[in-house]
Write a structure and sequence with these properties.
By secondary structure, the protein is an alpha/beta fold. The chain is 22% helix and 33% strand. The protein has helices spanning 47-51, 106-112, 123-133, 149-157, 168-171, 199-205, 220-224, 244-256, 265-273, 366-379, and strands spanning 2-4, 12-17, 22-29, 31-41, 59-63, 67-68, 87-89, 92-93, 116-119, 136-142, 177-179, 187-192, 209-214, 230-233, 260-263, 277-294, 300-312, 319-321, 324-332, 338-343, 348-351. Helix 8 (244-256) packs across helix 9 (265-273). The longest helix has 14 residues, at 366-379. The chain is globular, with a radius of gyration of 21 Å. The chain starts with a strand and ends with a helix.
Amino acid sequence: MTTSHRGLNTAPAVLVLEDGRTFRGRAYGAVGETFGEAVFSTGMTGYQETLTDPSYHRQVVVMTAPHVGNTGVNDEDPESKRIWVAGYVVRDPARVPSNWRSRRTLDEELAAQGVVGISAIDTRALTRHLRERGAMRVGIFSGEAIADEAALLAKVRAVPQMKGADLSGEVATTERYVVPAIGTKKFTVAAVDLGIKGMTPHRMAERGIEVHVLPANATVEDVYAVNPDGVFFSNGPGDPATADHPVSVMRAVLERGTPLFGICFGNQILGRALGFGTYKLKYGHRGINQPVQDRTTGKVEVTAHNHGFAVDAPLDGPSDTPYGRVEVSHVCLNDNVVEGLQLLDRPAFSVQYHPEAAAGPHDAAYLFDRFVSLMEGQRA
């Protein structure tokens, strides 16, 4: 990716999909070129959390909400230390942000972090195209990066596919760190960082959990060196079929019977650890308005999602695994995709979506309480 800073949104820009479809608009953020997998997010709020979610590494995010940037950018809401999206696509960027916490415009933040974007295109048409054809590789070119369309298309088609990509090590912490419990410490959790969002350990800390965040390449010995009451596997980018190391660590945790909780990528890791396969969704689930049913209670939740892969597990009843019986605990009501797994004979469960949901909704926050209950039960 090459970038340069600029002032007003006057530079021309072009978005080129790998199937040859092209959209022309104006530069937004940095000027230059960028590549990734084109995906769309249906959230109407929370763009700052989306941009800084490590799970979006190497993805170009298309916002379906037409007006983006209204509240500017603040220093409190990022989920990590940087923007992770490879590129950003909006229809109508806010001219002037308005919020008491705003420190700068979204355009300025994108430019400062070298994120190439495009505005003033028909994002509805682009979203419909991705729904029909599926997520695909894309390039955004602006300013001097614009060239003959055939040359730009060749560049896009040279970009690696998301399928088969091993990315968690590129976004995870390289050093262990601790998020202290808020108030009285009740439990210690070892959290394997595969692309963790900042709000996740915070949600645990709110419940009296001291969280030891470990690198993606942490060993079983590293996990148990902190004497954990529970083990957590985070969200993250890439193809779960490549995550052999986290799968082996999770199997060791299951063998010991330590309470275990996984979110998003962590759900896919649990699926693989239990012997299920994973597969790539046509265009994935991304946004904060996805309906999911908790089959253990019958309750329907509005949930936050960001995943392009899913677990291939049977929906019609419990399955036998080397670690006892497991059932699909949550399912997406839009397409019956597996959204959660629960072991019936060991203290372990996972969900495919994001119960920490800093920008909302908060329907699924109870899952952190469920994790606490597992640790309480084990201790008793």
